[in-house]
Amino acid sequence: MEFTVSQIAELVGGEVQGDKKAKVRMLAKIQEAKNGQISFLSNPKYESFIYITEASAVIVNKDFQARKPVETTLIRVKDPYSSFTLLLEEYYKFVSFQKTGVEEPSFAGEGSIFGQEIYRGAFSYIGKNTKIGTNVKIYPHTYIGDNCEIGDNTIIHAGAKLYNNTRVGSYCVIHSGAVIGSAGFGFAPQEDGTYKTIPQMGNVIIGNHVDVGANTVIDCATFHGDSTRIDDGVKLDNLIQIAHNVTIGSNTVIAAQTGISGSTTIGSSSVIAGQVGIAGHLEIGDNTSIGAQAGIGKSVPKGNVKLMGSPGFELLAFRTRSSRIFLI
Amino acid sequence: MEFTVSQIAELVGGEVQGDKKAKVRMLAKIQEAKNGQISFLSNPKYESFIYITEASAVIVNKDFQARKPVETTLIRVKDPYSSFTLLLEEYYKFVSFQKTGVEEPSFAGEGSIFGQEIYRGAFSYIGKNTKIGTNVKIYPHTYIGDNCEIGDNTIIHAGAKLYNNTRVGSYCVIHSGAVIGSAGFGFAPQEDGTYKTIPQMGNVIIGNHVDVGANTVIDCATFHGDSTRIDDGVKLDNLIQIAHNVTIGSNTVIAAQTGISGSTTIGSSSVIAGQVGIAGHLEIGDNTSIGAQAGIGKSVPKGNVKLMGSPGFELLAFRTRSSRIFLI
Amino acid sequence: MEFTVSQIAELVGGEVQGDKKAKVRMLAKIQEAKNGQISFLSNPKYESFIYITEASAVIVNKDFQARKPVETTLIRVKDPYSSFTLLLEEYYKFVSFQKTGVEEPSFAGEGSIFGQEIYRGAFSYIGKNTKIGTNVKIYPHTYIGDNCEIGDNTIIHAGAKLYNNTRVGSYCVIHSGAVIGSAGFGFAPQEDGTYKTIPQMGNVIIGNHVDVGANTVIDCATFHGDSTRIDDGVKLDNLIQIAHNVTIGSNTVIAAQTGISGSTTIGSSSVIAGQVGIAGHLEIGDNTSIGAQAGIGKSVPKGNVKLMGSPGFELLAFRTRSSRIFLI
Lengths: 328, 328, 328
Fold this sequence. Notes:
Number of strands of chain A: 40
Oligomer: homotrimer
Largest sheet of chain A: 11 strands, parallel
Radius of gyration of chain A: 24 Å
Helix content of chain A: under 10%
Number of helices of chain A: 2
Structural class of chain A: mainly beta
Shape of chain A: flat
Largest interface: A-B, 57 and 63 residues
Distance between the termini of chain A: 49 Å
Number of domains of chain A: 2
CATH architecture of the largest domain in chain A: 3 Solenoid
CATH superfamily of the largest domain in chain A: Hexapeptide repeat proteins
């Protein structure tokens, strides 16, 4: 992939000042960009880098006034940051959606339906009556159970496992080793001290533009007709635990190794750092920030707050309100 | 799966009051049950729901006296909770054990032996001299190494990995991405500052009725003849770390993302919440409750205690008593 | 595998005192060794065991003076600990490198190159233009993407996943379910509250003699030409998170469930206990010890320190220094 500066200027609706034929292959931050790369200047704090950058081109605001000589080629646009993220997006599509076709052996159950332009890697497994959208990329060793639905333009990396009845929207990315729809952790204690497993019969519904990190686990809901829900635009990092019947609101971002216990609802547009633990049956409001390693044992539904510290959450919060059925 | 109320009454030995021909397909909590579902009333605290429930039937105590009109059909039994868990169990068997037969391609090494009624999914791998019991369900992408034993009626979900010599009992459920028998973390420090890997030659022995959650890891014991041991009835949630030579006593329940370091023994009938860390070479007694995110650095062998807080455990506990061989 | 005491004495350059024809099959600690096993005595603290051990042979210092009758056979050497670790190493090679050949079905992309004596398990997948060294063992369900390089004598256990462009050195062990090269967690926030995924175009470079534990995740670097780097001799336990652009210096050991955020550098010869969280963009010096469950929010570059406690790290450390691009 190699473009001329003038091709890029056309894509972002910008005006070139400098070498229109300069070639760029990669995107980079301005403080790190090298020859053959393109960057952007949006925050004035980084202005000094534009006078020393080795980047072949830099996207700047159309009103940018250089206070020293600039050697790199400039592309002047209305909003450099938006233009750069547009390029990111185009580049992403370019690198992500090249693979098509079916590698053998691969397995597709009865009644499964496939859209156009899909890739099914060797040793991938699709169950019965599962519906795969257009331009979906299913890497090797992926398991997708029966009665699942995968929306258009979604990428499922090698070895992700989706249990029966899972629904994933469009433009999602599921990374390697992620497990979606595993049985929630629910047991009925018996008088003899043993537990009977409570069958987990619900599913997981994932919206559009959701990323699920490597080896992250999302359990299915307990009862039939219920769903663990990950809404549009949510970004989940690696090794996260999402228990049964949790809801994560749209555009919430969660960092690695955080765990959310059963039936808790997280609002939208929240940012949860790494290694956080959140007890079950809580409500966390919109626009909530939670610091790394925090333990949250009570509901904080009002939103627009920052939560930190590691008080350890209360033992009682660990059991459900139901007196005898034991669901974590 | 659809039953009449009278069929269910027969199964649980109850007496019907209402529509014997009403049909039920699902089980649900009384506060959430809908038409076509069956629930139970055991705790008097939930009595109010029986007057408003949409459930098609509710299992109640034979002495239950309604204080308001009841519209749902009642099934009167001696112990409603036991009857409901019996139904759970029957339902669970029904949904879990439908698959049989071998999907191709799948791999079975020399000398491996299979019981009746098993399911072996496509791309599953069974090593040499491995013995698989009756009615075992092995989902796609499962890896079971050489010289393993899997007991009757056990389910191994897609992509679980069992190293050589692993033994799993009957009626177990191993979820996707679980790794059982990986090498424990042991290294011999050398004078030049490097480490030599200590070969891990023991195995893992898992009892009956054990659940292992998605992406949980259980390391094998260090020396040949030794085992990391998960006893009967233990329930392990997702993303748990169980190090080499650990023993977990029967009917102990451990929530997600907890880690137990090498050679520690956990008693039976204990409840360990999520994100707990327990140092190595400790003894934790029976009936111990440990709160979420706690760090346990000392032995608490007496049992029947509740442990909370996050003191962080001591660095020394992190090394073994052996002065130079380094086993975490 | 069974050797006579005189064969072992020859290997370690020792002198036998006792039964030269005694047979040993296993290695064990002196306090646990049984008949048919060999052990060593290096630390005088363990001397008492040599008088009661059931071991068939014990490696001791050439100057060792017994103060009581010794029944076991002795092998006298210059440095018993070094001799024992040499045996460990030989044993490890013996048990690890027996498998050779290709089990079918397995997949190898165009242009992939394989050394001698390799093992490729059934359902293993090798992408295009990938180079596999001599004596490499690739277990079933392993995924190795395009343009990867795997050095000689490396073992990749069942179901490990290596994304495109990953490089792994010689004598490494990658355990089951490990994911190497997954996309780092980076998103560009948009004015409407959504995030655009920042394409992650770098790779992961792993040195020689590195162990990566089961279900551990190592993300690739963000920009093309950059690498997340795990240097020679590093030992990573299970379920660890290593974010994009992290560097781990040589001979550093990290225990289970620890997480290291993006762009942090860890020095060499450090020991990090389990469940530690380290924020992003930090520098941790050489020979640093970090206690279990600690939260590290600031750089500690000087080295030779012990860090403990769980202060929770600062929220700001959770974002990058770049003002608008959001990389955890």
